[in-house]
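Session log. Operator J.P. requested a structure for one protein chain; no other inputs attached. Running the standard single-chain path with token output.
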Amino acid sequence: MKNIDPERTESGNYLWAVLLITAMALLFNLNGWGVTETSEARYAEIAYEMYQSGDYLHPRLLEIQHYHKPPVTYWITALSYHIFGPNAFGARFFLQIMILIQMWLVFRLSVMLTRDKKIAFTATLLYISFPAVMISARALTTDAFLNTFVLLSIFFWTKRRITHHPLWLYLTYLSLGLGFMTKGPVVFIIPAVVIPLINHLFPMKHKKQGFHHLIGLLVFLFSGVSWYLFLVWKNPSFLDYFVIEHTINRFATNQFHRGEPFWFYLILVPAMSFPWLVMAIWHSSKKLKSPFTYKRVLWLWIGIPLFFFSLSTSKLILYVLPVFPAIAIIAASTWRRLPEKVRRRWNMVIFSYHALILASLLSARYFTSEGINFSIGMYFITGLMGALIAFQIIKISRTQIAVPVASIFSLLLVVFSTYFMQANPRLANDQRNVAKEAKAKLSDEGHIMVYDRRLPSVAFHAHQPIISIYNGNRGLERETKFEKTDKWKNSLIDIDDERLKSPAFFKGSVLLSRISDADEPAFKKLDDFFAQRDTVDGWVILSNVTSKK
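Structure written below.
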């Protein structure tokens, strides 16, 4: 009878326990804070306007068409609103599901590449210890969804190479199509690097594949390109808009004001996976001439996309989220093969890193100009983190605890973040309290107005259309070229508009302004139309009626 390693068998069973614990941490207090400006509130509000209107083909933000991203993220979020209601929990729910799917995919990919469930289980634990991965679950954006579809495409393609079954090929094309409908051509960057390497790692006997690829291409066109083709068919100018403005210009220019230096990712990615990527590089540098194995696949999976994205002018840390699964697998493989003595040294590094994070959390309130409120929940979680660090130092010689401790510490940070955001709405850029107060002071015939800011979070939480008053803020420079009527001018009003000179226009309405904007002469002129002034979470609220509370 074939010998079976009990630890390898149990690793698969432990995975489900880890997924359950992670789900509990991710979903805990998920509605504790409101959707935050700017990105999360924008996606949440666009999905809400879809949910309200039933128009799922033309994304709208504050009553103006908004085609910066294709619609899959909005569709998934609108589905969540139908299930849980249009609230912060509904906006974020499927993000948490995406993280759980990614964990499962990291495990399965690790098994297929390394043929070792112990490495696969370690990789899964490491993956949830990475701050970048946890950040992607805290605020609604396209990145967690895109990362899932990228991972699915690689997983399905690998399954195809191993099993030869055409179904996996079709699912690869479907995953790429859904990724294309999530964030456009960027979905191809990782697969274009990894798929040829997977082909080399898992060679197939030559067979005619044209028919299956043709079906797969049709699946991709339907799932990934149909929405674009529909819009271009309706208006040919969309072709230049998608290709030039939101593909080429996003990569080559600082049009969206996200410019960073070339070395941005080369510093931030190791920092967001510390110390695991550094450890893997340190202990792999002497084996660069090794034969082609899964490790070469993983290193190229990390290195080539990082170099490509480093060439881009527009940079955010979550743009490179799809390299972190490869970091988890290569780090797990490296860790499992290190001598015990070497692992003990890295264990001390991990301990020091956790201690530094905890010390920073506890001292942040004393070293910032902004006041930080500490809730009971925050003290409780930091106490658990301190206990975990104490356990870590007591058991420092037992290196097998290092990876589970790193994962638990990360999940405690996730729970801590929910209390932090809830207790510090101003620091979190959470306007839920502002929206509630504004709606309470709004009469039936009035409007919520916002001075010189785009504030979709207020529209989302108040479930009320808002009027933006433009006075030069570039965040309010909206793309209106696809509007077929002038109705949008009722949602975006220039500061010199004649309507703003009439007291009747402000009857029963509420005007919001950042405290920092309230001293501007233009705002002071509007102030004259209101009798009551309140401040909430850094915002001035002007009204003519008392609260309905």
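Operator note: Residues 1-9 have pLDDT under 50 and may be disordered.
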